[in-house]
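Researcher: We're teaching a course module on how sequence relates to structure. For the next exercise, students receive a sequence and then see the predicted structure as tokens, so they can try to spot secondary structure elements on their own. Here is the exercise chain.
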Amino acid sequence: MDLGYTVAMWQLQIQSWFIGILAKKTDDEYRGYRLPKGSLVRKVVVIGNSWAVLHDEEIYPDPFSFEPERFIVNESTKSNAKSPDIAFGYGRRRCPGRHTATSSIFITIASILATYNIEKATDADGSVIEPRHEYVSGLVSMPLPFRCKTTPRSEAAVKLIREGLDGNILRN
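Model: And here is the predicted structure for the students to work with:
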């Protein structure tokens, strides 16, 4: 089974969030600025600005749009989008849990897509509510909550969902 689109969706999720603050472990100086031990320092001051790289329109055209296809490279797309793994940092300070994080994101996305149909929500009059692309910024950037409609794909999906919620899926 080809899960290329699912892989592209988790890459899109990694691109959209970013941990942007580090605490200094020792006193330091950077370009004439004193950085005392324990102070919170944004990565843009001390190390590479991953957010800027992950939102560079030359690499990721329209970076705020939902386009997992940008990570599917084939003859028709000729995409130059890079894998967003730099969200986990660089070099020796790179996140040691990045493989667990990306696997968890992938499994979550694949499980949701396998069991649910996801559609835009509607209001009381039946008009479609367009999701707004608004984000919380800070330690981790993430989308603000929005309404959507989820329906199980089938009776088999309902059974999987119930077993997962009950914890029975691992016992069967």
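Model: If you want an answer key for the exercise: The chain has five helices and eight strands. The beta strands are 21-23, 28-30, 33-35, 40-42, 116-120, 135-136, 142-143, 148-152.
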